[in-house]
Amino acid sequence: MSLVGRRCSRERRRLSMCFEQLKQLQTASYESARREVFLSKPVTVRHNLKFKLHDEVEKRFLNFYPDLIHILSKQFAGQHPAMSNRITKLLTSSLSTSVIGKRYGLLVPRSYKELGRSEKEDDAVMLGWTVELLRASNNLTAEVIHDLGKNRRGQPTWHRKNNLGTAAVSHIKILESCIFMLLKRYFSSTPAYSHIFDMFVDALDHCATGYSLDIKLNPEDRKPKLQAYDMVRYKSIVYSTKTYPCLVLPVSLALHLGDLSQKSVHLQSKRILTEIGLLHQVRQDFENCFKHAEEGDIARGRVTWLIVLARQRASPSQLQELETLYGTSSPEAIARVKEIYYKLKLHKNIPMYIDQKMGDIERMIQGMAKVDNVGLSQSLFFKIHGDISSDDFTFIQSPGYYQS
Asked: Considering only CA atoms, which of 98, 93, 62, 114 is closest in space to residue 387?
């Protein structure tokens, strides 16, 4: 090849490489621009986009959502068609993951499948949505009682957004009524109906218990030296408001649906899930205080694992300060309470406790037979434990930025 030919060949290769690099840059720019356009869309639009891939259990669960809204709005409206639109708005807002968060109702069909059952998958989905309705009712109750302007995810609360005031109590009752409408319509003729009905009666009882133990709502319970912030109250609040509605209820419903209604089976399930729920709340309390910039537990005077331990371990002078400052919203008061926590070494001791508790729960699950004589397996509880206690493992709901 001549010198000119070789130079032309090199130039063609150089230009080809340049075009390839330019193409890559354009693609990267396009992806960046596309991301910016997506993020500029209103939150309501972004959250309705289906960017996640769901497995079959989750698809079945989410696909029933439009039917659920239609059934309830139509049935509840009855002879008053004008109510249908209002009921639809209430349900779609209250059941949104931007309001109630993680879809723990999915634990019903997930647990049912994990038990090796498949013949009542549609019933499991329906019961999963009754769990979500219960959680929506509990959430709205808390927002109205505490008259919150925004929920924990920064969204305007339903009663404030619609200027409802105490009239929102009627919406709470609507959500509760929807649960029992569905149970009566779809399960009243099934053998498990009495068990399922009792589970939801217990759920409402636990909700009431949680509010009766809330110190902010019951100021007469306050005692000198923070004596009301004790371990018994803390564990009761965690079980009634978090563990039962989010873990014990959905798993127990799946067991009943799978014809596993033996008392011993439910006691074993409850014992393990109670420990998992407690561990989850301890971890959340710790992270709220030491990892999140906008700490709110101290300012609100919440009963947390940290204040319970601090009350047990504080010196008389520290205890006097905590009694004065805890529940105060001033930055100086919050900073001083945290300083006492650091002096008591809670930032070191609690992570050690969490690690130890994780090991204890794993040993509890391992203590079960791999599949006992009625069909209860280790696998279900290991997966729930992994989902609740780890940031890296998902079982209940598919991972992803955009929730349905």
From this structure: 114
pLDDT in tens, 86-117: 889 999 999 998 888 899 999 999 999 999 88
Distance CA 236, CA 233 (A): 5
Identity of the amino acid at 85:
N
Q: Flag whether pLDDT at 166 surpasses 80.
A: no
- Phi first, then psi: give them for residue 25, nearest 5 degrees: -65, -40
Q: Among 83, 60, 57, which residue's Cα sits nearest to residue 72? A: 83
Contacts of 40-46 with CB under 8 Å at 24 or more apart are 43/98, 46/402
Distance between CA atoms of 131 and 134, rounded to whole angstroms?
5
| pLDDT category of residue 291 using cuts at 50, 70 and 90 | confident
Q: Report how far residue 111's alpha carbon sits from residue 269's, in angstroms, rounded to the nearest whole number.
A: 12
Burial 259-280 (b: 16+ CB within 10 A, else e): ebbeeebbebbbebbbbbbbbb
Per the model's pLDDT, the better-predicted residue between 150 and 303 turns out to be: 303
Backbone angles phi, psi at 390, to 5 degrees: -125, 150
Beta-bridge mates of residue 156: 150
CA distances from 43 to 40, 98, 101 (A): 9, 10, 15
Which residue in 214, 208, 195, 349 sits closest to 282, CA to CA?
Answer: 349
The token pair at 7 is: 């130079």
Name the token pair of 124. 């499991």
pLDDT value, residue 84: 85
Report if pTM > 0.90.
no
- The residue assigned the tokens 């029933």 is 64
The DSSP letter of residue 240 is I
Q: Give me the phi and psi of 101, to 5 degrees please.
A: 80, -145
Whole-angstrom Cα distance, residue 229 to residue 235? 11
For residue 310, CA distances in Å to 144, 215, 355 come to 31, 17, 20
| Cβ-based burial of 196 (10 A; exposed 0-12, middle 13-18, buried ≥19) | buried
